[in-house]
Design a protein that fits this description.
By secondary structure, the chain is an alpha+beta fold. The chain is built from six helices and five strands. It has two domains: about 55 residues, Thrombin, subunit H (Beta Barrel); about 100 residues, CarD-like, C-terminal domain (Methane Monooxygenase Hydroxylase, Chain G, domain 1, Up-down Bundle), CATH 1.20.58.1290. The longest helix has 22 residues.
Length: about 190
């Protein structure tokens, strides 16, 4: 079965599976081992990184255009579902989550977000689970942000609001309200 040729344009946002969303800044020719190779130059502003991908290897590397708004909405809807079975040991699940994150597929990212999100304010997460959750959420939010013209933090918040993820309680917060307002008035008249 012949593969379809990916057609990328300068200025277009693309998704590189292991890095997330970047902007194709130019196509350049480089000489490598005596051969001229066309390279896609992708800027990942958030990571302060520039990546060069040979045009011939773009599809094999998993480079893809942004998903559609409809597919992103489907991914977010699937992240609202019930968490998957947790019958395997954490190390295997963590490896699977890592693989899903590095796939760049919005549906697989949604699986990680769905399985690791907190369902109520008292839920706790291990450090490694929290890191995986945040990476998956960030990857989803990167694409969501570009599709909806938001900044990354606003996109993350919007996704968590849609999913109904409870806000974290800041245990170090100081209540600055006047305590006198909360007291019952004296009945001494």
């Amino acid at each position: 079965m012949p593969s379809k040729k990916l057609d990328f344009k300068t200025g277009q946002y693309v998704v590189y599976p292991t890095q997330g969303v970047g902007k194709l800044v130019r196509v350049e020719e480089q000489t490598v081992a005596g051969q001229k190779i066309k390279m896609l130059v992708i800027d990942f502003e958030r990571n302060h990184m520039t990546l060069r991908v040979p045009v011939e290897r773009a599809e094999i590397s998993g480079l893809r255009p942004l998903t559609s708004v409809k597919k992103m909405d489907e991914a977010i809807a699937s992240a609202r579902g019930k968490a998957g079975a947790k019958r395997m040991i954490w190390a295997r699940r963590a490896a699977q989550y890592e693989e899903n994150i590095n796939s760049g597929d919005p549906m697989k990212l949604a699986e990680v977000v769905r399985d690791l999100q907190r369902r109520n304010p008292t839920d706790t997460m291990t450090f490694s689970a929290r890191q995986l959750y945040l990476r998956a959420l960030e990857r989803m939010a990167q694409e969501f942000a570009v599709l909806h013209k938001l900044d990354l933090d606003a996109a993350s918040e919007k996704i968590e609001d849609i999913l109904g993820v409870p806000k974290e309680i800041d245990l170090n917060a100081v209540d600055n309200d006047d305590d006198d307002d909360d007291e019952e008035p004296d009945d001494e008249e």
